[in-house]
Amino acid sequence: MPDVELYETDSEVVAKAHVPGAQRKDLDASVDEGCITIRGEMRQSEESKTEGSYVSEMAKTEAPALRGAADRTERPTERRGRTIWYTAPEEWAMKLVRFAYQDTVYHGVLADGRIEAISGGLFGVLEPLNRIFELDEVRFMSPTTPTKVVAVGLNYRDHAEELGMDIPDEPILFLKPPTAVIGPDYRILYPPESEQVDHEAELAVVIGERCHRVSEEAADDYILGYTCGNDVTARDLQRKDGQWSRAKSFDSFAPLGPCVETELDPSNVWVECFVNGEQRQSSSTLNMIFGVPRLVSFISHVMTLLPGDVIMTG
Measured between alpha carbons, how far is residue 273 from residues 16, 36, 169, 223 in Å? Predict the structure, then answer.
């Protein structure tokens, strides 16, 4: 079990875990006012190739507290086929989390530096359990348990230009298995087969409804929200194999979380990555070759997307 440090400032909630594992970077991910930021540190032990830590951070935003069962006076709010009880029906934006407390896994809403536990998971009727958890009592898990993670390669114009590659006519897709998914304070395992494991900070889309051959115009209706993702890649194996399955699919190579932000404009979001304080990635989703609606529609014409599935946008 890693040593987990959780604290809050005026603007953000931070969860950090320092663990033996993953020589590579630790992910700090924050979403606030249309900006997603990913930061991290690289630590390597003299004794072990797999010494490191994984750090995750999600900015805090105001979210409506859920209304207690005995305190309801208005009708439940319907949103994208889901029933939600809370105090401000005109406001739906929430940070949805999945976390462990002792030996039990809960879902909850992160607000005001605390978590209110809910029933219904991410896709059922969200109702309060009348239990409040402090951040230092829990361990954040991946906010969703996808049946698949669909990732997009070469989806930024500046990245394509940097590599001297042509702009693709259609999205380039690959899959990461659900066994690659871990939470924001879990160790990233460094496989002995690789000598170069890289981070790839990305905006991740969480699907909320069964999605099959939908139009770009309807795509938003099938999206639950957005989270932070790290498309960890064994770069040397990617070059060696020529295709990406092995390099992208090792256990722990798809960190997600810590929360699903239900309201975010994905068309203008900054994605940045820092390693040991040095900026390694910085780009806006304005530079995406294929935007989120196009990706959701295109992928849904290839495979059916199920609730909880994740699209890593490149």
Answer: 16, 10, 27, 25
Q: Which residues fall within 8 angstroms of residue 163, CB to CB, at 6 or more apart?
A: 154
Q: What pLDDT does 39 receive?
A: 42
CA dist., res. 136 & res. 5, Å (int): 7
3-state SS class at 10: coil
Asked if residue 121 has pLDDT above 80, the reply is yes
3-state secondary structure of 271: strand
Helix (H, G, I), strand (E, B) or coil at 110: strand
Question: 137: how many CB neighbours lie within 10 A of its CB?
Answer: 14
Give the pLDDT confidence score for residue 92 in this predicted structure.
55
Q: What are phi and psi of 195, to 5 degrees?
A: -110, 0
Distance of alpha carbon 108 from alpha carbon 130, whole angstroms: 11
Whether the ω angle into residue 64 lies within 30 degrees of 0, i.e. cis, is: no
Confidence (pLDDT) at 70: 32
State both tokens at 47. Answer: 């004794």
pTM recorded for the entire structure: 0.74
Say if CB 268 and CB 284 are below 8 A apart.
yes
Integer Cα distance of 202 and 185 in angstroms: 17
Q: How many CB atoms lie within 10 A of CB 269?
A: 22
* Token pair in block for residue 124: 């059922």
Enter the tokens of residue 16: 């950090």
67 to each of 13, 60, 92, 106, 123, how far by Cα in Å? 23, 20, 13, 18, 18
